[in-house]
Amino acid sequence: MKDIFTDLYNKVLGFFRQTEEKPEEESAKDVACNRLKFVLMQDRTNLSPELMDRMRKELIELLSKYVEMDKEALELGFEQEGSQMALMLSIPVLRAKEESEIEAILAKEDEEKGSTDAEEAVDETAVSNSVEEVESSADTDESVDESEIIDAGTTSVDEVSEDIIEDSEKSEITDSVKDSKKSTSKKEEKETVVSK
Amino acid sequence: MTALMEEDIKINTEEKTEKTEKGDTMSGRVIVVTSGKGGVGKTTTNANIGTALARAGKKVVMIDTDLGLRNLDLLLGLENRIVYTIVDVVEERCKLKQALVKDKKNPNLCLLAAAQTRDKTAVTEEQLKDICEELKKDFDFILVDCPAGIEQGFQNAVAGASEAIVVTTPEMSAVRDADRIIGLLEAKEEIKSYKLLINRVRPNMIESNDMMSVEDVQEILSTPIIGVIPEDAGIITSTNKGEPIVNDEKSLAGQAYSNVARRIMGEDVPLLNLKEDKSVAGKVKKFFSNLFGKEK
Q: What percent of chain B has pLDDT over 70?
């Protein structure tokens, strides 16, 4: 008798669980929207997933000089806001770095940079055969205008540190990129750093 | 029957692109109907908007630029009346006016047919521009039916136009191609304004979240909408008969197309609400509208 009741109880419970715990599957429409947004982002920016990944890595490298952040949780993507396309970067900040800490990292970097420059100069004079090689490697090293990066970095770190003081949970830096659709020269877009 | 509600659905049809509308009212407006992807309803859209504009008393000429794959003549039921094509005009075998085929019903409507035996290289951008300029003098609207793709055929069709209607459907591939076309139109200085027409919308599928909604497509493409056309089996029968569906006043797709034409003429017409009205009031309304025929 008791068995019948427990059986019935379980069945009834099971029934309600079934109706309640219906796994919420993503609708076909949502899948389509998300896939489309992703593929259009690639189409519009000419950035393949590999390039996005590289951009992400470089950004982590750059920004982690100034703040200690959750590298795994860093989100990077393009979002459409009306006719404007925005590059959204969301980084959970774990801890603000000490001023001395940042200075030490930057000083070390400057030192390294200085020494590599010196080495290159020596190489160029000493081994004239491989001048081309050295040049090409120098090109790849410095193809991204470093002064620009440092500029952008310092402005964004200002924003970030402000955010840390105000709310230490999450800071969002928005690089609002001029809509690539509107501008013919996608590569020469002017970037402005805006804090959200 | 889907109940029609009078309330406009919350989509901004007024929102304009950064480019301003053409101000010149003295000569005809050249509008290219394009899509990127094939089979989304460019030619159907062209035939119906053209017919609707002509029914409203405007002088309309449609140019089929899909050389080698012409179909606009079929949709209008004019396939047996074509003597000269656009290629004959370009190669000076006839005058432009000789090549214009008058519609069976509406004397305001003309067709300049594409050549079926030639390819896209038979007409150049310059030549199409000249033809459009010439036609502007005599017509209120010149509708250019663009071939699918983004190659020379597209470039030709767009050459003479100052406005564009981008046809898409709520499907991923069509939206992606529309995005590409919008990018290309944006880069063209001659195109002063472009708008989106969302075709083959299936309200039931949108209701069940199986299809992207009009709002989704608009958000993704961030382009103002000129019209939303529901999927309608009547399109196939009307194509079979060679008679555009706008001539059938009872058809929902036909109504949607004539609304597009009214918007082109500058009227402020709210988008048809294609959703079934499930409220009690809606059901009562539907009951009475079925009882007494079309209710305004």
A: 84
